[in-house]
Amino acid sequence: KYSTSRSNQCLYFPAGRLEWSSHFNSCPLPEVIATGKAPVAWSFPPNCITPPPTENKTSPKPDCLFSSTAFRNGHGISLVASTITTSHLIGIGSFNDEPLPLAAQRRESLGPAYKIVPVEGKGMGVVSARHIKRGEIIMMDYPAVLIGTSFLANSKPHHRRRILKKAIKQLPEGTRKKVEGLSRGKEEYEVDAILGPNANTVLVGEEGGGQVHVGLFAETARINHACRPNAHSRFSERRLTMEVMAHRAIKVGEEITMSYIPITTPIEERKKYLKEHWGFECTCSLCRSSPQDIEESESWRRRQKSLKATIQDATSGEFYSDAIAMSEEWLQFADWDMVHPLWPEYHDSLADLYFRNGDMMNAMRYARMAYDGWVKFGSIDDEKLENAKVLVDKLDKISEEKRR
Ligand SMILES: C[S@@+](CC[C@H](N)C(=O)[O-])C[C@H]1O[C@@H](n2cnc3c(N)ncnc32)[C@H](O)[C@@H]1O
């Protein structure tokens, strides 16, 4: 799929257990790993750690720290991941800087959509700096640090902390200061206290659609939780970008919030999770509202959850017309305040269901809606748009063949 030059072997030779190998030191700096697409310049020699051999004696894959201070116009990134994941990211062009799509350029020209300010009872938070339209992308953020969970699980605590401290230290000053200024958890060690309440999990890498990685996005990390949020985030592996988009129109000065847990989680479970995993009692507007409001929202969640599960069951059992009827109902009943503004995604799956059910006309109707939706959405990653185009073209071809 892509080629990574083997002439520069620095990437592939682990330095041993957190030791600098003479091999690395002999590498020219900055490290340039030539790929089929574009070079990535590492600003420091990679620092690798080889996990202990596994019981079945398979050779363990080293995890290395790679830092680039040039990434995204000086934002910088420190990646602590396997060499396989790193090569994969280089191969799919994740480190390349490409011009922003037109929709994003237009947004940028409107000026910043948000500012980070103190918010009562929550520390800092993000509020809108101008009127934000429904479905608008409010924030584009890049990982300051991206860490493979295999590294977190397999490295010894002091090795882990040493590498992570170094990962932060190797960031450009502006980003490093943002990271160091994030709110801290109660963890004993500084890196753990920074990562604890601020990191997100994202899927990165090959093998079955990606592996869980922990990403520290210094701006996104300022967004507080709400049980009835007005925004949602979405990560693009290809563009190594976190996009935050509005579920509904947001007034100037209104707080921008996201749900830290799946939206259909019942209230008691939500409270318990937020307390145990995040260490806070939620003070969002829904948690402070009347029992009647809370019950209304809970019944909405119950219905959403059961409808989604039934749609999944019907789809996997190939009862497509049932799945279609329920998906149509789900679309009617899902409101913009509560669901992700990702209508194109739902239109996409409806197009697929109609297609499987042999109803080409409705399949085309939804495929076009999905395509138009992705155009309007204006994500930095046009993968969804490309896929929607492929489906529209395929359906076009089928109906053309039928006409002949
Ligand atoms: C990802 S940070 C959000 C930004 C953080 N408020 C700050 O000052 O940087 C998560 C932390 O914010 C606070 N927080 C987020 N949402 C909250 C809420 N709904 N109610 C109370 N505290 C909240 C908690 O302390 C939580 O551990």
From TrEMBL:
Which key words tag this protein in UniProt?
A: Signal
Record-annotated SET domain positions: 112-261
Q: Which InterPro entries match?
A: SET_dom, SET_dom_sf, SET_domain_protein, TPR-like_helical_dom_sf
Record carries keyword Isomerase = no
Q: Matching SMART domains, A to Z?
A: SET
| Pfam annotation, one family | SET
Gene3D superfamilies, alphabetized:
SET domain, Tetratricopeptide repeat domain
Q: Which domain of life, per UniProt? A: Eukaryota
Q: Know the name of this protein?
A: SET domain-containing protein
Organism, by scientific name, is: Podospora fimiseda
Read off the lineage from the record. Eukaryota, Fungi, Dikarya, Ascomycota, Pezizomycotina
